[in-house]
Amino acid sequence: MGNMHYILMGDVVSSKDYDSQTLQKQLDNITESCNNALRDDLLSPYTITLGDEFQGIPNSLLTAIRTLFYYEEECLRQNLNFKLHYVVHYGKIETEINPEIAYEMMGPGLTQARELLGSKKRDRKRFQFLLDNTVLTQQLNRLFEVMDSIIRSWKMDDYQLILDMINNDNNAEVGEKHGKNRDQIWKRRKTLMVHEYNLIKESIVTSTEHL
After folding, report:
1. 48-70 tens-digit pLDDT
2. Which of 133, 152, 129 minimizes the C-alpha distance to 141?
């Protein structure tokens, strides 16, 4: 079991709809930022393998979960207008883990993760888990599908406000930053379902912390 690892891969949804050079630069920026933030918890750092795809080897399921939230919230922070698909798979890597860059590694786990990521099914979800625990796989797929429905309802004009509300539950403080009063922030928090997003996030992180 020593060569079983969590594998995380991602790509840009409908990447052909965006300018390729701009898209690659934006994806580079998010990926570099994530690697810096999670450096101590990555066996192999997230690496862009093609212009719109990346992969890496987190040291645990919790680190994989934190990666997903990091990428999603960094998209808010940087006001990016694209979405990402993700696959988190627990599978076999037969070669040594490359601690410098996620290249030159092989194994059925990587192959299966790539097949999942490249699936053209019409009902493909943005977040896909395939783990060794069937119940946990189903639960995470369900929770992230609910969370994604909240994220997809958000508009770019609200990204900075949403990010501040995610990180600060004091409506008065958030309102002062955005030129609104406490009641206005309370209403926006309710309409944008930021509290529900945080509840799902906390539930997912808590349930995977001790695995």
Report:
1. 988 799 999 999 999 999 999 99
2. 129
- Two tokens, residue 72: 């999603």
The CATH class, in words, for 4-133 is: alpha beta
Tokens 């001790």 map to which residue? 210
pLDDT at 5: 96
Contact criterion met (CB below 8 Å) for 122 and 36 = no
Mean residue pLDDT of the chain comes to 94
- Beta-bridged to residue 130, according to DSSP, are 89
- Sequence spans of domains, the chain: 4-133
- Mapped to the 3 state alphabet, what secondary structure does the chain carry? CCCEEEEEEEEECCHHHCCHHHHHHHHHHHHHHHHHHCHHHEEEEEEEEECCEEEEEECCHHHHHHHHHHHHHHHHHCCCCCCEEEEEEEEECCCCCCCCCCCCCCCHHHHHHHHHHCCCCCCCCCEEEECCCHHHHHHHHHHHHHHHHHHHCCCHHHHHHHHHHHHCCCHHHHHHHHCCCHHHHHHHHHHCCHHHHHHHHHHHHHHHCCC
pTM of the model as a whole: 0.95
